[in-house]
Amino acid sequence: MALVRASPLKDFRATALSTTENSTAYSLGGGLTTGEKLYGALHLTAVSTARVLVMKIQSATASGFGSPTDRFTFSLTSEVGSTWGAPVSNLSTEHKWWRASWALSTVGLTTGGTWKGLAWVGMR
Asked: Residue 66's domain spans which residues?
C-alpha cells in the first residue's frame, strides 16, 4: 500500500471552530492527473457540545469558488475521533482549487460549542 501525501485544508487544532465559514482556497500541486484518486478525512481532537458539525471538502475550477463541487461530506456531533471519506476517482483534471467548508447545525440542539481538529485532502 502506498502513502498519500496529505495537505491540510483547515487546521483548527489550536483555534476552535465556532461559526459557519469556508477555509482559504488552495491550489494543490496543479490538481489531479488522469488516473489519480482523491482521499480526504476529518479528525476531531476536542468537542465541547452536542451540536452537529458538517464539514465538506470542495473543489472548483477557479479560486473564487463560484460553482464549488462537494467531494466529501462529514457529519459529526460530540465525539472525538476520525472519519475518512471513500476514495474518489474519475475526477475532472480542471478542478485545481480546494477548500474546506463547514456549517454548525442548531436544529433541535444547543447553541454555542466549539470543535478542534484537522480536515485534509490528498491525491495519489
From this structure: 5-123
